[in-house]
Amino acid sequence: MPHKPNNRLAGQTAVITGGDSGLGRAISLAFAKEGANVVINYAHNEKAAHEVEQLITDGGGKALVVQADVSQEAAVESLFQQAVDAFGTVDVLVANSGLQQDSPFENMTLAQWQKVIDVNLTGQFLCTRAAIREFLRRGLRPDVSAALGKIICMSSVHEVIPWGGHANYASSKGGVELLMKSIAQEFGKRKIRINSIAPGAIKTPINTAAWDTPEAEKKLLTLIPYDRVGEPEDIGAVAAWLASDEADYIHGTTIFVDGGMTLYPGFGDNG
Ligand code: BGC
Questions:
Q1: Residue 66 and residue 2: Cα distance in Å, rounded?
Q2: Mutation test of ligand 1: which of 158, 161, 219 has the most ligand atoms closer than 8 Å to its C-beta?
Q3: Rounded distance from Cα 223 to ligand 1 centre (Å)
């Protein structure tokens, strides 16, 4: 997808959790094209994180790779400390790390429930709290951005669409919606701008089985009125814009980037 850089994030530092793969990778690259210093956080895949770093430095940008499990308080504190040590402050957080551990509900283990809540919801609590503390410490720099800081929570269409067989995941994203809105309400006056992006079906490693054969893709497309499965760059482009001052009046809302998945396509010829 063509993405014209125009330096909308020049002089800013962004922490992208899960920046090594999937949506996080595309967001890291999109932010670098806009001139941001990118802190690429990863949990397990160091090699992939360094590949993203290489792509950014090859393009003339600045990046830092930091390992951290976002569900661990000390690891998140260390992630932000390393970002501040390297670049002076943090201007943007994209709380993107997320995973699925799918199971029919009657068989879902407590470990499966807990893991998904820990990474997808507690991880966002820890990262947004660390980001907000840093924004408040640093203070406003009107020459850099109109906002004291920007936070983008990675949600999902499943913050509103119930998802059988994925109750842990849908619950975590429902939680992300009200976490985002509650802190947006709390910190708007301090000029911290907080929103979510809710992707639909995007071609990433989290859902490969849903699109990697023609049969699977055809079935998936019945859920997508716009009739194509999304690409990670669809999310990268929106995230870069949402973090920029062009989106300065967008606060406390969820932007759905889903090809119309939330339009209840099953009603197109029924009801
Ligand atoms: C999930 C994907 C799924 C998509 C649409 C995402 O949040 O992670 O597995 O394909 O929602 O259902």
A1: 29
A2: 158
A3: 11
Q: Where are the beta strands (DSSP E) in the chain?
A: 13-16, 37-42, 63-67, 92-95, 149-154, 192-199, 254-257
- Ligand 1, residues at Cβ distance < 6 Å: 100, 156-158, 200-201, 206-207, 210
pLDDT band of 1, cuts 50, 70, 90: very low
Say if residues 203 and 221 touch (Cβ distance below 8 Å). no
| Token pair belonging to 86 | 């390297």
Look at residue 202 and give its three-state secondary structure: strand
Global pTM exceeds 0.90: yes
Q: What is the pLDDT of residues 140-192, one digit of tens each?
A: 999 999 999 999 999 999 999 999 999 999 999 999 999 999 999 999 999 99
Supply 21's token pair: 């793969």
